[in-house]
Amino acid sequence: MHTSSLRKCGTTASALNEACFCVSLDQVALANALAEQLGNPELSDLLKSRCPHVFAARPVFVSPSRLRQVSEVIQAIERTVSLPAWHEHALGSAPPIARHSPRGARGVFFGYDFHLDEDKLGLIEINTNAGGAMLNVLLARAQRSCCSGVVGLSPGPEGAGGFEHSILEMFTKEWSASGEQRPLKRLVILDESPQAQYLYPEFFLFQRLFESARIDCMIADPADLAFHNDCLLIDGKPVDLVYNRLTDFYLEGDNCSALRSAYLADAVTVTPHPQAYALYADKRRLVDLTNASLLEEIGIDPQTRAVLAQYVPLTVPVEHRNSEQLWEKRRSLFFKPVSGFGSRGAYRGDKLTKRVWEEILGGNYVAQSLVAPGERRTVADPQVRPMKFDLRAYAYAGKVQWNAARVYQGQTTNFRTEGGGFAPVFTLGEEEERAGSSEQRSHASFTFLLDENGAVEELPHPLYLALVRAERATSKLAGKRFRLADWYVAMEAGQPSKVIREWYGWVAFDADGGYHPEVDSPKNGQSDSAGNVDSSALPTFEEHNKIEGLLFRNE
């Protein structure tokens, strides 16, 4: 075997984030998913124009051990928040509405945001109305694996369907937990000036989902609601449940008067609700979660305290008494406003000016120990560029429903980066993860070009990787079109031992010898059930034997 034929995208998450460029967002599949989900081409156009950078071009790879740690952190926080002493402490400094019982509703779409690199995982924020869930359903249905080594690692259509089911189940649980016996009939998605919101198109995705379950759903501004005769109304019709996307977390605005009155009168189920924000998402809770003496005082068990100490970066309030110390350590800190959301008003310490620092001192901020975000290298013609990413775990009642990443450049996630946005999380299996840490046993992909005459030629690893990255072209192949065979193979002592998966597709080389994978080629043939293999590119029996001969030859 020639080692030059080995394309080492990698068998670990970090290696794949560094070198795998052969999985991408399939624009045709995305358009089909949009048409199916939205059922209206105008809404599809709205999503493209309003949110041009909401879907990242490439997935992010995360190891199963990291995802287990994420789940462990979320469960530790649930155990902490469940204690009466935590409620007493957290609600003591919150507005009175936060102490009103939500009648058993827990709060939908908790979003736990993490930074992670090779050495460290850190919880940077907890959100109680995390957006993007339905967009990630779409995204999972629009991924195309152009490399056999990653086929089966993506969430896939079945996973997306399972997430949709868990979303519907979550809302019905919120309704029944409120003590209601009859079926949920009418739901309102509520946000201030919803048509002006960046993620407004997602509201339609939710609307379609609810209506598919025979739940009447309306999208409204809080001023559209009325409270009469102990009933919350929208267009004169009673409202059962409010899916609350407001960033007025305590319903303090004048436009929230009807909703506030109905909530305090127990006339409607609101989720997420003010109490959830006070218990979880107020930035001061990050301070409390890293306050060892407080946690011990309120009765948190040692194992839970150890998990929180390991994975929640130390967070302290910014006060005049510690301002000098924080300024000196600012390069290792991240500053966030207590009442902020969506990264508004947040600053990396190494970017601070004296003017901004004075604003922070008077602005009710917390300082969090800096945890570096993950890095995902992606192709941007004509070069490979590094992108940052964080991991968002959507959770309900302490259980992770879905993992997504947000890819970006700059200080914080912004959905304004070309090639950035929400990215699906590809998860290596346990076998792949173990293989990645073993020198004696690993997995690798081997690639071959098949021409129209039945000739089979290995595509050397250095050339293939340079072509994929658009770092170089090859005049030898200029103007030609080939079938690409990509075999994912188990390795023993550096030699191929067993074929795990095979992938076939079409590639073309332009007049300059530039590489262009034809990701839409299945429309000219037939794809497999996963939408990954173009049957028109399959090898003949003789070609298959030639590939085996090249792969398993003895030297």
Report a brief summary of the structure:
This protein has 555 residues and is an alpha+beta fold. The chain is 32% helix and 27% strand. The chain has 18 helices and 26 strands.
Main β sheet profile: 7 strands, mixed
Strand content: 25-35%
Number of folding domains?
2
Overall outline: globular
Number of helical stretches of at least 4 residues: 18
Q: What fold name stands as the CATH topology of the largest domain?
A: Rossmann fold
The CATH superfamily of the largest domain bears the name Glutathione synthase, substrate-binding domain superfamily, eukaryotic
Average per-residue pLDDT, rounded, comes to 85
> Which consecutive residue ranges, at least 5 long each, have pLDDT under 50?
1-8, 435-441, 520-531
Overall helicity? 25-40%
Class of secondary structure makeup: alpha+beta
Q: Give a count of the beta strands, DSSP E runs of length 2 or more.
A: 26
Q: State the name of the first-level CATH class of the largest domain.
A: Alpha Beta
Termini separation comes to: 7 Å
Describe the structure.
- The protein has 555 residues and is an alpha+beta fold.
- It folds into two domains: 13-286 and 373-431, Rossmann fold (3-Layer(aba) Sandwich), CATH 3.40.50.1760; 438-552, no CATH class.
- It contains 18 helices and 26 strands.
- Strands 3, 4, 5, 18, 19, 20 and 21 form a seven-stranded mixed beta sheet that branches. Strands 1, 22, 23, 24, 25 and 26 form a six-stranded antiparallel beta sheet that branches.
- Strand 9 (225-228) and strand 10 (231-234) form a beta hairpin.
- Helix 4 packs across helix 13 (302-311) and helix 6 packs antiparallel against helix 7 (156-177).
- It is globular and about 80 Å long.
